[in-house]
Write a structure and sequence with these properties.
There is one protein chain. 65% of the residues lie in helices and 3% in strands. By secondary structure, the protein is mainly alpha-helical. It has a two-stranded antiparallel sheet with strand order 1-2. α3 crosses α10. The two termini are 34 Å apart. The N terminus is likely disordered.
Length: 252
């Protein structure tokens, strides 16, 4: 049993390293190009697929989810999911050399896991211990990896070559995934799905405006994602413009 677990962990690490190595082949944007999208033809096909999935599955299920479950239950599910994501964020904080944020996320995880009944409640926010959100895409940016080309992933939505690689590394290197197996792992996956559905409902107006009311929903989603992501990473070298939209794809 131990050897099997060890082999699984090694496989995850190997795949993570391979994804990082793949970044060396990332497309480099020509000078002066702010939206680097050499895969636009393929991306638009993926975008059309994602819109169909949202329209026929995610949006109606999210509305039903909100009607069936009371808000406190939805909040508890989302809190539980968010709390279980903190170990992975702490690891990224450390890899980025941001020990202050790592300490704050650690305190939040400890307090919510104990006083918050396993993370179902969120006393840390009331105590002023806010979550320091991060991911391996930001870690790669800290290490000097270029953004690469814009890509839209099936189901997951807008991304870049760097963030796509970072997303899969986050899955493989998430500390909680090594601890939560069987029913616990399924409970976590269910909670994550609930968090996504709640986010889809809460941001429904913004997402619907982008996807269904834009003249070109692909170009609009691409622009919003890139502006928000660059601002998050403090890469916005423009004239101080801050996009007014909430990123509708952050939790997807």
């Amino acid at each position: 049993m131990i050897s099997a677990i060890f082999r699984t962990d090694v496989v995850k690490i190997v795949f993570s390293v391979l994804f990082v190595c793949m970044l060396s082949a990332c497309s480099v944007a020509p000078d002066g190009v702010s939206v680097h999208d050499p895969y636009e033809k393929m991306n638009r096909k993926t975008h059309a697929f994602n819109k169909a999935v949202d329209k026929n599955i995610i949006r109606p299920v999210a509305r039903t989810y909100d009607v069936v479950l009371p808000d406190p239950v939805e909040d508890g599910i989302s809190n539980f999911s968010s709390n279980l994501s903190l170990p992975g964020k702490i690891l990224n904080n450390v890899l980025q050399g941001d020990l202050k944020s790592a300490g704050q996320n650690t305190l939040r995880f400890v307090f919510n896991s104990t006083y918050g009944l396993g993370g179902v409640l969120d006393p840390s926010t009331h105590w002023g211990i806010e979550e320091k959100d991060t991911d391996f895409g930001e870690t790669l940016e800290t290490w000097g990896v270029e953004e690469g080309a814009y890509i839209e992933l099936p189901i997951l939505g807008p991304s870049t070559e760097r963030d796509a690689a970072g997303f899969f590394v986050d899955i493989f290197l998430d500390p909680a995934s090594y601890v939560l197996n069987g029913p616990q792992g399924r409970a976590r996956s269910t909670a994550r799905a609930g968090e996504i559905l709640q986010t889809r409902h809460v941001l429904g107006a913004q997402i619907d405006e982008v996807l269904y009311e834009s003249a070109d929903s692909y170009a609009q989603a691409r622009l919003i994602f890139l502006q928000n992501r660059r601002f998050e990473l403090e890469q916005d070298t423009g004239d101080g413009y801050i996009d007014p939209y909430i990123d509708p794809y952050e939790d997807f």
